[in-house]
Specification:
Elements (H helix, E strand, L loop, with lengths): L1 H20 L6 E6 L7 H16 L4 E6 L7 H10 L4 E4 L23 H8 L2 H10 L4 E16 L14 E4 L3 H9 L3 E4 L5 H6 L5 E5 H6 L8 E17 H4 L4 H35 L3 E4 L2 H22 L1 H17 L1
Parallel strand pairs: 1-2, 1-3, 5-6, 5-7, 8-9
Antiparallel strand pairs: 3-8, 4-7, 4-8
Helix pairs in contact: 2-10, 4-12, 6-11
Amino acid sequence: MKTAIGLRAAIAAFATIALMAGPASAETKAKIGHAMPESHPQAAAMNKFAELVGTYTNGNVKLQTYHGALLGSDEKQLQAVQAGTQEFYIGTLAPLSSRVKEVQVWDLPFMFQNTKEVYAVLDGASSKQIFEKIEPSGLVGLTWTGMGFRNLSNSRHPVTKLDDVSGLKLRVMANPVALDTWKTIGANATPMPFSEVFPALEVKAIDGQENPLLHMYANKMQEVQKYISLTNHVYTPVALVASKKFWDKLTPADQDAIRKAAVEAGLLQRKLLDEGDRDVIAKFKEAGVEVDEVPADQLARIQAQVKPVVDKFKPQIGDAFVDGFYAEIQKARSAN
């Protein structure tokens, strides 16, 4: 009997210790991955996100960042977040575009005049609608932020007007909108994996390419390109998303804390990108690259030239959605 009583007392004592230790073992570990290198503003913003998550959840969630595609390609990481084996991802939602056609709206050319318009749309109703549409895929949208305007570089001559594009052999994104856009304005549009672009430029198998300025500089385009044109033809946004399987296990307080952290980190990323673009233009010039503005009247000519491309893809994306998207741009433009 004494043995039984002693055993019960020991079990009770162990249970008490376990309960007392409960809060210390309640920490939830999570991973966030993305494709950009540690030197990129996105990496700095995600390090800040991890720090803020720890602070705002009072240490309930500990977030580890993985830069430089350590967790795989964008597509692989999105699949992992959908499956719940990775908790967070920031990057393009393009791999979802076959199921969530509204994602393709960002491929439409020459929509924006400046980043103020972009950021207004990223924080607006259309972007929230895309987040609602990806939720059935197992994703929770936390915030939209930027990757920058795509601009044009080439090794042959300055591009400051529509006619200058004619005949240039350009590597472009392997999506139908991009291919049609560049063909429509006279380029020889060539899809190609980005890993092959630098050597192709080096041997002049192609004349040029198009990417955000920071991306160009990080990949040493200044060594193989003589001219950059600030066309701002497409803006590439990125989304910070969470796994719904992971998200649903969090308390409402921790969910609110993570959303707050995500918005703040996204705003930091926008700020760092804007500063980085200004800085990198100066670096390109120092490296001997000619950087040209495209005058507004020429941009208007190009916009008119690519209107059939917009008209072609608009029904595929959704007429009403595209109209709402353009209305948000116009509202932001009028407010400037």
